[in-house]
Amino acid sequence: MAKKCIYLFDFDNTLYDPANGLMNELKRRMGLFLAKQLNWTPAEVEERVEKLRVLHGPIITGFMREYPEHKIDVELFSQFVHDFSLPDYLAVDRRLQALLAGLPGDVYILSNGFEEYLDQALALLGIKDLVKGIYGIRFVQFSGKPDPNAYERVIDDIGVDPASVIYFDDNIRDLKPAKKLGMTTVWVSNGQKWQPPKWVDYRLADIYQLSQLDLSC
């Protein structure tokens, strides 16, 4: 495989400030959809949706695995979950634009989100044209992070040595498979102070601190 420098980013709560509440809205709407499908009470939604996320990563993946007898309509799920005003949460980020534009390599996204959502969100942040490829939940056939297959499918599609990849994520658990494959891992801690585990190579308080690191290949 050809060697070239790859900067691979998670999206939600990594490339924007989680304080904006976007991820909370997405999770809320996922819970509402599943509650309607299964007649869950609000208490059951809170408990079970969190359990799906912890055990399986993507909530929709967890639902498919834990409740195979209930056939979920993926298109209806995506439409419902994303039926809100995304511009209320995201706007052009000039600092992020400059940061990504200055990286000495190609930029890709690996997210558990749907590609159509990621496409719109990146456009709102003003960085869509800086991203060479978007890998969402459809591309990995709903086996999202932290399933190692998700990372392997992306690396195979890009066609690079994992050692040439620098992977950024706000979720420490999702960095572990990347490190095992040989990537350099960067935890975007969003201000969390506790000591990261051994599979984290670098820690950033937020994505803007990337400019302070020498992470060229």
Explained architecture:
The structure is a single chain. This protein has 217 residues and is of the alpha/beta class. The protein has 2 domains: 6-13 and 92-212, HAD superfamily/HAD-like (Rossmann fold); 22-86. Helix content is 41%, strand content 12%. It is built from 8 helices and 6 strands, in the order βαααααβαβαβαββ. Strands 3-2-1-4-5-6 form a 6-stranded parallel sheet, sandwiched between helices. Helix 1 crosses helix 2 and helix 2 (42-56) packs across helix 3.
Major sheet characteristics: 6 strands, parallel
Principal-axes geometry comes out as globular
Average predicted confidence as pLDDT: 92
**CATH topology (fold) name of the largest domain:** Rossmann fold
Structural class: alpha/beta
Distance between the termini: 15 Å
> How many domains is the backbone divided into?
2
The assigned CATH architecture of the largest domain is: 3-Layer(aba) Sandwich
In terms of quaternary structure, what is this?
Answer: single chain
In which range does the helix fraction lie? 40-55%
Q: How many helices does DSSP assign?
A: 8
What's the β-strand tally? 6
Proportion of β residues? 5-15%
Kindly provide the radius of gyration, computed on alpha-carbon positions and rounded to a whole number of angstroms: 17 Å
